[in-house]
Specification:
Blueprint (H helix, E strand, L loop, with lengths): L6 E5 L6 H11 L9 E5 L5 H8 L4 E5 L16 H7 L3 E4 L2 H6 L4 H13 L3 E6 L3 H5 L3 H12 L5 H4 L3 E4 L13 H18 L2 H6 L1 E5 L7 H5 L6 E4 L6 H10 L1
Parallel strand pairs: 1-2, 1-8, 2-3, 3-4, 4-5, 5-6, 6-7, 7-8
Helix pairs in contact: 1-2, 1-12, 5-7, 7-9
The protein binds phosphoenolpyruvate (PEP).
Phosphoenolpyruvate binds next to strand 8.
Pathway: Carbohydrate degradation; glycolysis; D-glyceraldehyde 3-phosphate from glycerone phosphate: step 1/1; Carbohydrate biosynthesis; gluconeogenesis
Keywords: Cytoplasm, Gluconeogenesis, Glycolysis, Isomerase
EC number: 5.3.1.1
Length: 251
């Protein structure tokens, strides 16, 4: 039995206006709050001030979906860790496959963003995972190893223990095709071993690793039943209040 606190994080992606976000929050308040489970909403930048305000006095944490690696500068359209910390944001998703694919986010950039998060007192949720062709070529574990090692480069053991890793096979994101819980456990157990290799077993045992990819209220418990799976990063099923509440209850 590990001491790791299960963590359910909703990734809203590019959905919800401020009024929609506030209305969602009023519906989950007091419900998506379960003892022993951490509940996090990762929302669009524009909704973060209102959500941080709404979350005051609750146990629900608010996260961003991206951060720039510099604190400030001539980076038109970007948002820094200084700005997110100032808002009261706690978590930030880094290296989501959509950012890697559509915004050219490399392993090196992911690593810089992890450092920028810690520098500004934010906790990173680092996404790793293989493409379908990589899975079919038997490269799943190699891909996850390379991405994990790159993300943790130069990160101290104390910081590493606070990182949340989200293992998200890309072919399972938003497709309705989820990895079996046994397959997810196999890869996540392997990723924990990679962290142990980088640091030590105690650090690896502290790191929380989520599964992500078409997690729904009806399959979340199955993933949570696996030894090394500490939670879920959820896109589509986190957008409706009732579904999000069920995910937190199911964890
Ligand atoms: C995600 O956005 O990280 C994700 C896993 O999406 P979905 O749950 O919709 O597959």
């Amino acid at each position: 039995m590990s001491n790791r606190k299960p963590i359910i994080a909703g990734n809203w992606k590019m959905f919800k206006t401020v009024s929609e976000a506030v209305s969602f929050f009023s519906e989950i308040k007091g419900k998506a709050e379960v003892d022993g489970v951490e509940s996090v909403i990762c929302a669009p930048f524009t909704t973060l001030p209102a959500l941080v305000e709404a979350a005051k006095g609750t146990s629900i944490a608010i996260g961003a979906q991206n951060v720039h690696f510099e604190d400030n500068g001539a980076f038109t359209g970007e948002i820094s860790g200084v700005m997110l910390k100032d808002l009261g944001v706690k978590y930030v998703i880094i290296g989501h496959s959509e950012r890697r694919a559509y915004f050219a986010e490399s392993d090196e950039i992911v690593n810089k963003k992890v450092h920028a998060s810690f520098k500004n007192g934010l906790l990173p949720i680092v996404c790793v995972g293989e493409k379908l062709e990589e899975r079919e070529a038997g490269q799943t574990k190699d891909v996850c190893k390379v991405q994990t090692e790159a993300a943790f480069q130069g990160v101290s053991a104390a910081q590493a223990a606070e990182v949340v890793i989200a293992y998200e096979p890309i072919w399972a994101i938003g497709t309705g095709k989820s990895s079996t819980s046994e397959d997810a456990q196999d890869v996540i157990g392997y990723i924990r071993g990679v962290v142990a290799g980088l640091y030590d077993q105690a650090t690896a045992d502290a790191v929380r690793i989520q599964y992500g990819g078409s997690v729904k209220p009806n399959n979340v418990a199955e993933y949570m039943g696996q030894t090394d799976i500490d939670g879920a990063l959820v896109g589509g099923a986190s957008l409706e209040p009732a579904s999000y509440i069920a995910l937190v209850e199911g964890a």
